[in-house]
Design a protein that fits this description.
The structure is a homotetramer of 364-residue chains. With 364 residues, chain A is of the alpha+beta class. Chain A contains 9 helices and 18 strands. Chain A has a single domain, classed as Chorismate synthase, AroC fold (4-Layer Sandwich). In chain A, 28% of the residues lie in helices and 21% in strands. In chain A, helix 1 packs across helix 9, helix 4 packs across helix 9 and helix 7 runs antiparallel to helix 9.
Chain lengths: 364, 364, 364, 364
C-alpha cells in the first residue's frame, strides 16, 4: 500500500511515469453488464490531454486507451478492467537541469528525500501524466453512475487570477456550457478575459492560479459513511490527491467562519411540485450532512496553484545542496485550470462510484 | 468497511454512540516498547471534553479512559490497544423533538435515508461524542511521534466570526500559548474578544463559526505517498472526517488562485546556520511538495461551521415530511472551535503516525 | 494492519489478552435491521467457554458479552457493533516458568523474536482466549446468514487420535446431533470412545490431536471472487488463523492426489424433484468451483494438533537460551477439538457473511 | 475489492483473461534500489509457461514480460511496477462446446451464477493463464527476499497419483535438483515413473492429481502477525487462491490428528555449532509457532486435483440446464503438478515479501 490504489469497492490501481512506456490502470469492482468500449474513454481523455488548445502545454499526446481485459462482447464482465495508455511524445531532450537541480514547487527534492532516488525524466511518477489513467477510470465511473442513477458530474473554471466567473446556479451548468470555450468557464464574458490573462502570463514567462468548481447532481440521499469515510472526507482526499490542489471547500466553504448558525442552517422543506422529496431551501451545506449525501447537489471548489515550472530564472539549489538558479525551458501549462476540470470530475465520479457500491453492499 | 476504521498501518477502529454505554477504539499497529498509561490520554481528553469552560456545552463527562489491552508493565506490547470511555451524563430527557423532526444541519435526515432508521438519542453515532476515542488514539500517536522524531502537533483558533487572530509565526506556537485562554487562541487580545463574542452569540440563542489553524513541526522530509495517498490527501480526509468542517487549505491555500507562479514558488535555500538541511525561504506550500513532506512545518486551516443546534425556533420538517419548526433545547456549544482544536490535532497526529510506519515499511 | 482485523465488508477488529481486563471486538458493516441482543451470543460462547465439561480445561469463565454499540431498540442500526467480554478467572499464580522459559509448541519464542517482549501471563495475545470475541462475532454472522439466506454452519469432531467417526452425510448433521455429547461428535458410538481416550490421555499427563469437519448448507451459487479472494482461499485463511490448525482440506481433499480426472470430476445434473437447480451428482469439489460457491454444501476438514502444554516435564530452553525442562502445571484442554468446533463454525460464518455483502456490492 | 489484489504492503493487482489481449500486474510497495530487469522474470515464467515439455499442454506462449513502470536505470524506484504479458497463441477455434455447456470441475457454472455472464473463450478470467503475472510478481518478491535476507523458496512435486517421492531433507532441495527433470521431482527414480504415469494417463484421455511440497529457508524468526494474519493463514490463503488446490498442510499436517502432544511437540535446543540461534530438534511445526516464523524452514504441501478438462466424453448439462455430454478437445495438461511448482513458489514469495515489509513497518 504505497498509495497507488484508490477506493474500497470501485477501486483503481495505477502505474506509470511521464517518460516511460506508458500508464496503466486496473479497475476492480465494476459491475457486469455495463456497455463499455474505448470510445467511452476518449471524450474525457481529449479534455485532459496536453496540446489541446493554445492555452495549454504543447506536448502532443494522442492518449489512445487500450482496454486489455474485463470487457467481452462490448460489456463489462465483472472482472478487473485494465486500460493502457502508451506515451508517445517523449521528446528527446537534455534532462541535466532537472537531474541536478531541485525545481521549486515540484516533488524533486521530496522524492529524493523519500526514495533516495528519482526518475527525473519529466518528473517521473510525480508528473501529472499519471492522471491520464485516472481520467480513463473516471469515465467508466461516470458511465456507471449515469446508467444506474442518472448522476452527472460537471466541473468548470470559476476563477483565474482575480477574474471570478458569475455562476448563478452551479447545478444548472451542463457539459456543453463548459466546453463552449477553451478555458472551460461557463461565464462567456469572463472566459474571454481569462484566456487573455493566461496568454499574457505566458508571454511574461509566468503562470497563474485559479479555482475550479465541481458539481454532482442526481446523487441519492444516503451515500457516505458516518464516521471516517464521510462523503466529504473521501471527496476531499480525492481532490487533494490531484497535483497542485491547495484548498478544498464545500457549499459555503470558508465563508461559514463568519456566519451565525441562524444564517448558515439550510431549512428543510417538504416535497413539492419541483422536488419529489424533502429538500433544503438553500445549499450552504454543499449536498452533504453528517458527511452523508442529502439529495441536494454536491458542490465543491478547489484552489489550484500556479504552475511551478517557470521559463524565467529563479533561485534554487542543486541536488548537492548548493545555491543556483533554474529556468524550466519546456512545455508547460501557463494555467493548470482548463485541464484540471476533467481530472477533478474524474476523482468525484470515482468516489461516488465507490460509495454507490458501498451503499448497496450494506443496505442491499 | 462501513467507514469505522482509519489509517493503513497505524490504524484505528471505533464504535459507540452519544447515549449508549460508551465509546471504544482499537488501535492496531503501534510499535512495541512505547511507555503508555491512561495518564497519557487524559490531557487531550480534558481539552476535548464537554463542560470544560463557560463557552462550551454544559454536558458533563469525565471521559475517563480504560486501556483494555496492548499494554503490559507500562509499555506497549505491539498487539492491538483497546481503549474504552464509558458515557456518564446520559441525561434522561424527552427525545420526541429529534425523534420525529429532522434537525437542520444535522445528520438526522441523511441517517434515515441511509439506514432506514437511526439512534436518535443525542444524535447516536453522528454525535461528536465519537471523537472522544479519536482524541485518545491521537494522544498515543502524538506520543509515538514525539519519541521517535520529536514531532509536535499544535492547533489553535485562528478566527471566530469576523475576529481573526494575528499569528506571525504559526510554527512557533506552543501548547502553553494555546491553553493560555479558554478559546484556545494564542493572540491574547483577540482571544478576549472571541470569548465575548461567543457569550453574546449564546445569549442570543445563536451560534458562530470559525477557523482553526494546525501546525506540525519536526516532520522529516519524505513522508507521504506520491499519487493517491499524498500526505495532503490523507490529512484532508482526516480533517474533513471531523464534524462541521466545510473547508481545508494548506499553506497559502485559496490565496494561490490570485497568485502568479513567480509570486507563489518557495525558493529552495542551502542548509545554513539555522537549518541543517535544504529548506525553503517561505512556506506557501504548507510543508508538502508533490504531496510529500518537505521538512518545512506542515500548516493547514479548517473552516468549521456554526453549531447547527439552535435554541431558537426555525423551520424544518417532520420525519413524515410535514413542515414544522424546531428549537433544540439542550446543551450545545455556541462555537465549536475551542473543542475542535484537540480533535484536529488528533487527526493530524494519526495521519503522521500512519505515514511514519508506511515510510519505514518501504524504505526500511 | 498488524493483523487484528478480518474481512472486507463484514469486518471485525479485535483486541485483548488472556489475563488482561478482557477482550473486545468491533464489527463493521452489519446491515441495519437485524434483531440482536446478548442472548444471541451466549449460545455459541457457552460452547466455546472453558470449564464446560470434564474433558476441557477447568479455567472458569462465564464469558458474559456486553454489547456496547450498534444496537438500538433491539435491532442493529448499521453502525459499528462493539462487544466486550471481561476476563474473570485470572487466577493469581506464579508465571516464572513461562516468563523465563519457552514452552514448546507455543508462541513464546516467536513473540519474543517478533516484538522483543511479550505479555507472558497465560500467553497474552497468543492465548486462544482471543477467540471468545471471534465466536461472538460469528454468532452475529450466523444470524445474518440464516435470516437473509437460510444458511446454516455446523461443525463436529470427525477424528480424535485414531478414532474416526462415521458420517454418511455431512450435510445432514444438525446442531442437536453435535451437541448430543460433550466431545461434539455426531457418531455416538465413536463419541464415547473419544471421551474415554481423552480422559486416558489426560490421566497420562498428555494430549491428543484430531480432525474437525465443518459444513455450510444453503450457500447460493456465485459467492466468492475469481482470483485471489476465492471462497476456498478466504475460508482457508480463516481456519488457519485459528490456533493449532496444521491442515485444511475441501471435499475430497488430499485424496485427489491419487485420483484421475475421470474419477474426481463431479458430473453436473439437471434440476430435479429434490434440487431445484443444476447440481452435482457427487461433492468431491467441496461446494466450490473456481473458488466460487456451486450451490452444493461447502465441506471442509481441519487438522488440529494436540495441545502443546503438557504437565509432564520435557526439554526446552530458557529465554536466555540455556537448556532446561518445563512442565506446564495449569489448566489445559487435553484435546482441543470439542472447543474448536464453535471457533471453526464462527470463522466460516464470518467469511460467508463477508462474501454475502461483497456479492451484493458488485451484483446489486 | 473484487478480489484482484493480494497482499497488504507488497501488494499486487492483476487483470487479464485467457484469450484477451494479455495479462497485467501492478506491484505496489517494492522498495527502491532493487536491481530489476525483464531478465529477472523470464526464468520462472519459462518454468510456468505452457508448451514447455511433452507432459504439459501444447499451447505455445512465449510469455515475454514488458516492464511498463517503476524501474529506472536498472533499479526499482519505489513507485508501482507494472508488467504486461501479451497473449499470443489465441488459437482461432470453435467455442460452442464451452459456450453452451458447463465443463465439470470448471468455473463455468459458478461464473454464470455469479455474474450472469462469462467470457467463455478458454475460461476467460478463470483460466490459469492469470497466474502468469503472479509468477512474474513472485520473481520480484523472490529477488527482494534473497537480497535482503538470503531467503530461498523452492518447490517440487512430491506425489503424482500413488507415486510418492522420497525427500529425506526438504530444506536441502535446491532449484537445480528440481529442474533436473521435466516433472520437477527431486527423487530421480520416482520422477521417471511419474513421467511415465502422466504419459499413460494422457494416452488414456484422462488426467491425474498430485501433491507439491514447498519450502522456504532463511526466513528469520518473528515474521507473521499473531491473530488473523498469521503467516500460516496468509500462506494458506495464497495457496488456496491457486486453481485446483484442495488441501494445504504444514509440517506434520494431517498426521497430527493421531499424535499425542508428547510425540508432536518439537523440543527447543540451544544454539550450537550448526545453528547460531535457538532452534527445534525436529520440525513437525513446519516453521511457524503461533502463526509466527520460528526460524526453522517453512514446509508445506498442497493437494492438487487432476485436470478437469478431459478429452473423453462425460456427462454434464447445458447452460439451459439440459443433460448432455462434453469432451474437451483442446490443449490441456494431463497433470497440473509440474507447472504448479513455480506458481506455488511465487505465492509463498509474495506472502513472505509482504510480511517482510510488515515486520519492518511495526518493528523498524
Amino acid at each position: 500500500m504505497a498509495g497507488n490504489s484508490f477506493g474500497q469497492l470501485f477501486r483503481l490501481t495505477t502505474a506509470g511515469e511521464s517518460h516511460g512506456p506508458g500508464n496503466v490502470v486496473i479497475i476492480d469492482g465494476v459491475p457486469p453488464g455495463l456497455a463499455l468500449s474505448e470510445q467511452d474513454l476518449v471524450g474525457d481523455l481529449a479534455r485532459r490531454r496536453p496540446g489541446q488548445s493554445k492555452i495549454t502545454t504543447q506536448r502532443q499526446e494522442a492518449d489512445h486507451p487500450e482496454i486489455l481485459s474485463g470487457v467481452f462482447e462490448g460489456e463489462t464482465t465483472g472482472t478487473s478492467i485494465a486500460i493502457l495508455i502508451r506515451n508517445q511524445d517523449q521528446r528527446s531532450r537534455d534532462y541535466t537541469e532537472i537531474k541536478d537541480k531541485y525545481r521549486p514547487g515540484h516533488a524533486d527534492l521530496t522524492f529524493d528525500a523519500k526514495y533516495g532516488r528519482r526518475d527525473y525524466r519529466g518528473g517521473g511518477r510525480s508528473s501529472a501524466r499519471e492522471t491520464s489513467v485516472r481520467v480513463a477510470a473516471g469515465a467508466v465511473a461516470k458511465k456507471m453512475l449515469r446508467e444506474l442513477h442518472g448522476i452527472e458530474v460537471v466541473g468548470y473554471v470559476r476563477q483565474v487570477g482575480d477574474l471570478v466567473a458569475e455562476v448563478p446556479d452551479p447545478a444548472a451548468i451542463k457539459l456543453a456550457n463548459v466546453e463552449a470555450n477553451i478555458v472551460r468557464c461557463p461565464d462567456g464574458a469572463i472566459a474571454d478575459r481569462m484566456i487573455e490573462l493566461i496568454e499574457t502570463v505566458r508571454s511574461e514567462r509566468d503562470s497563474i492560479g485559479g479555482v475550479a468548481e465541481l458539481v454532482a447532481t442526481g446523487v441519492p440521499a444516503g451515500w457516505g459513511e458516518p464516521v471516517f469515510d464521510k462523503l466529504k472526507a473521501d471527496l476531499g482526499k480525492a481532490l487533494f490527491s490531484l497535483p497542485a490542489v491547495l484548498g478544498v471547500e464545500y457549499g459555503a466553504g470558508f465563508r461559514v467562519a463568519a456566519l451565525r448558525g441562524s444564517q448558515n442552517n439550510d431549512a428543510f422543506l417538504p416535497a413539492d411540485d419541483r422536488t419529489a422529496h424533502v429538500h433544503t431551501a438553500s445549499n450552504r451545506h454543499g449536498g452533504m450532512l453528517g458527511g452523508i449525501s442529502s439529495g441536494m447537489p454536491i458542490i465543491l471548489r478547489c484552489a489550484v496553484k500556479p504552475t511551478s515550472s517557470l521559463p524565467q530564472p529563479h533561485p534554487t539549489v542543486t541536488t548537492a545542496g548548493e545555491a543556483t538558479t533554474i529556468a524550466t525551458i519546456g512545455r508547460h501549462d501557463p494555467c493548470l485550470l482548463p485541464r484540471f476540470v476533467p481530472m477533478g470530475e474524474a476523482m468525484i465520479a470515482l468516489v461516488l462510484a465507490d460509495h454507490c457500491l458501498r451503499q448497496r453492499a450494506q443496505m442491499g
